Amino acid sequence: MVLDTPGKALRAANVPTPKPGPGQLLIRVHACAVCRTDLHIVDGELTQAKLPLILGHEIIGVVAELGEAITRFKIGDRIGIPWLGWTCDECAYCKNGQENLCDDAKFTGYTLDGGYAQYAVADQRFCFPISDSYSDAEAAPLLCAGLIGYRSLVKAGNGKRLGIYGFGAAAHIIAQVAKYQRREIYAFTRTDDTDAKNFAMSLGAAWAGGSNQSPPVKLDAAIIFAPAGELVPQALKAVGKAGTVVCGGIHMSDIPSFPYSILWQERSICSVANLTRRDAEEFMALAPKVPVRTQVESFPLEDANEALHRLLTGTIQGAAVLVNDPAGF
Ligand SMILES: [Zn+2]
Ligand SMILES: [Zn+2]
């Protein structure tokens, strides 16, 4: 499914099977989850996309062919491929353990072709083994909703009372991890979204309400997964002294101005960008222990446009996943 230009629907196309270069694997894609970032790329809100582009950065598949100098995997291994697709290992950020900020980083399904396809190539350094306790479709959302959610959770600190704004794919995973860590979850959804509130409560939230409501207690931290800048001052009002507000998305509408008093008392705001391999190793080890169970709605690959539309309109509970028919290879 090819994006020719932002603003247009994806187009089903026959493209040549990519060849793995040195250090790369060819992966037969079994499943690829749909992320809100994909919507931002299709909409043109993210402007660095290679074009034409195959979207998709939450890929589960099996190794079908090895490039030269492969040391980490063999043919037939089941692996996952995340958003971070390549880093230089040489810039100041890479050398400082912040490869998520690498000056020359490349990103799967954005500046590299991704997983809305039957085959994809990936740098072996950024591929990860997947626990047998997950099916292909269940595992796919772990690769971004899980990883970025986990990085956001770590950034939020160790506080007990955690607010989550936007109860979609990332939130439904991270709520389970936070509960495992014996935290209390306060879920903020669209004001009239009863289904999302019920979904949050079913995952063990202590409270669920509209994003304009005040929680019954002051929170220690809040994570914002919804791309709405007006949530930042609302979250600042919901956290107590020294509280942290973490913006977990790659894109957000403008943040309205707000009085300094809601930031004062050592509250802070930060963003999360991308992920590191260490995040992936930590989270992929943690997820089966919790155990994180993902709720997915599967679509055939050729229905990618419908899956994106359903995500845009907020009518997916959990995560949307594109799956390939095994008979189609
Ligand atoms: Zn670098
Ligand atoms: Zn993503």
Could you provide a short overview of the structure?
The protein is an alpha/beta fold and 329 residues long. It has nine helices and 17 strands.
Features:
17 strands, 329 residues, 23% helix, binds zinc ion, six-stranded parallel sheet, alpha/beta, globular, seven-stranded mixed sheet
Question: What's the tally of helices?
Answer: 9
Uncertain spans: none
Ligands bound here? zinc ion
The quaternary state of the protein chains shown equals: single chain
Please give the radius of gyration in angstroms.
19 Å
Give the overall shape, derived from the CA principal axes. globular
The overall pLDDT, averaged over residues, is 97
- The SSE order reads EEHEEEEHEEEHHEHEHEEHEEHEHE
Helix content: 10-25%
Structural class: alpha/beta
Beta-strand proportion = 25-35%
**Number of β-strand runs:** 17
Profile the largest sheet. 7 strands, mixed
What is the end-to-end distance? 15 Å
